[in-house]
From TrEMBL:
SUPFAM superfamilies: Thiolase-like. InterPro entries: ACP_syn_III_C, ACP_syn_III_N, Thiolase-like. One of its GO terms (biological process) is secondary metabolite biosynthetic process. Residues 247-333 form the Beta-ketoacyl-[acyl-carrier-protein] synthase III C-terminal domain. This is 3-oxoacyl-ACP synthase. GO terms for molecular function: 3-oxoacyl-[acyl-carrier-protein] synthase activity. It comes from Streptomyces uncialis. Keywords: Acyltransferase, Cytoplasm, Transferase. Residues 114-195 form the Beta-ketoacyl-[acyl-carrier-protein] synthase III N-terminal domain. CDD domains: KAS_III. The lineage of its organism: Bacteria, Bacillati, Actinomycetota, Actinomycetes, Kitasatosporales.
Length: 355
């Protein structure tokens, strides 16, 4: 039977070793806050933070390898990806892209690889691209990775508005051709953007419009600046609308959703979206409390976590939705995958491909 969609057949995760509690973050960064204030305002109790030796590429490579290991366990044979899609806003270098180096380190030099930047919605965008490539016959086993190191690249550690929110990590999924009735099968997607509101979440300097050190720039302009109230309003509105559109395309109602996995931005945002979709608390899955906001990595990390804890089961009707800077948002429906996730620690870059 010909493939009509893409199926998630492997899941992987990678986190920096260092877990930082709210209390430690406050003490280390001399923030005017306290543990309970952060927990009540955001739902975050701790986050994993990369050290100076750990890059986005390190995390992405480990998560990608873990997803390939997961797929091999399920299939009984090693599967080689024929394209690597890396969703990230924090690449190892401004140029070149990080994905080719990740592919090389995974032992797949020569495999096409590219970075995709849609901020916190990046993984949903990348899934949609991977599904389109499979159904068009351009590839059979895309490896989709979301990886970020916001805490070492974009976040001002002394800015309470952002420092309390973000953590680092990577999640990955290997896909294969399949049919819409299989566990892991992607169903329908909805994507959107609104560049008129780009300033709501933006790094003011460092790009070609405003290079670092250009006249008029200020110290700290290379850090992420957010209008929290505006981001909250837009995130709730856009994710809710996008989710409803994806459900309509699939032929599902909100009552059909058995597993809801949102971008792990802020517990108030997650709950507001889920409440508007009438999704019961028991069907909402995430790990924001332990990991914080890991941007493009948050959805695959939450997906892997739900599978590891068996909080969701293969074949359950699942809704993913994300929102990020750009503004960019997206949703995808799928049947919850059968894959058993693997988790690997990041390893420093050693310039050697490994099988």
């Amino acid at each position: 039977m010909p493939a009509t969609t893409a199926v998630l057949c492997g899941l992987g995760a990678s986190l920096p070793q260092q877990a930082v509690s709210n209390s430690r973050l406050i003490a280390d960064n001399r923030l005017d806050s306290d543990d309970q204030w952060i927990l009540q305002r955001t739902g975050i109790a701790s986050r994993h933070m990369a050290d100076a030796r750990t890059s986005t590429g390190d995390l992405a490579t480990a998560a990608g390898r873990a997803a390939l290991d997961s797929a091999a366990e399920l299939a009984g044979t090693r599967i080689h990806p024929d394209i690597v899609l890396l969703a990230t806003t924090t690449p190892d270098h401004r140029c070149p892209a990080t994905a080719p180096e990740v592919a090389h380190r995974l032992g797949h030099t020569g495999t096409p690889a590219l970075d995709l930047s849609a901020a916190c919605a990046g993984f949903v965008y990348a899934l949609t691209v991977a599904r389109a490539l499979i159904t068009a016959g351009h590839c059979t086993h895309p490896l989709v990775i979301g990886a970020e190191t916001y805490t070492t690249t974009l976040i001002d550690p002394h800015d309470r508005d952002t420092a309390i929110l973000f953590g680092d990590g990577a999640g990955a999924a290997l896909l294969r051709p399949g049919t819409p009735t299989e566990p892991g099968a992607l169903q329908a997607a909805d994507l959107g953007s609104d560049g008129a509101r780009a300033a709501y979440a933006q790094v003011p300097a460092g790009g070609s419009r405003t290079p670092l050190g250009a006249p008029g720039t200020h110290p700290g302009d290379h850090h992420l600046r957010m209008n929290g109230r505006a981001v909250y309003t837009q995130a709730v509105r856009r994710m809710t609308s996008s989710a409803l559109t994806a459900l309509e395309k699939t032929g599902w109602t909100t009552h059909d959703v058995e597993a809801f996995i949102s971008h792990q931005a802020n517990q108030r945002i997650i709950d507001a979206v889920a409440d508007r979709l009438h999704i019961p608390a028991a069907r909402r899955h995430g790990n924001l409390r332990e990991l914080g906001n890991t941007a493009a990595a948050s959805i695959p990390l939450a997906l892997a976590d739900a599978a590891t804890r068996r909080a969701a089961h293969p074949g359950q009707r699942t809704l993913l939705t994300g929102f990020g800077a750009g503004l960019a948002w997206g949703s995808h429906t799928l049947l919850f995958p059968e894959a058993r996730p693997r988790t690997l620690p990041p390893h420093p870059h050693d310039d050697k491909a490994t099988p």
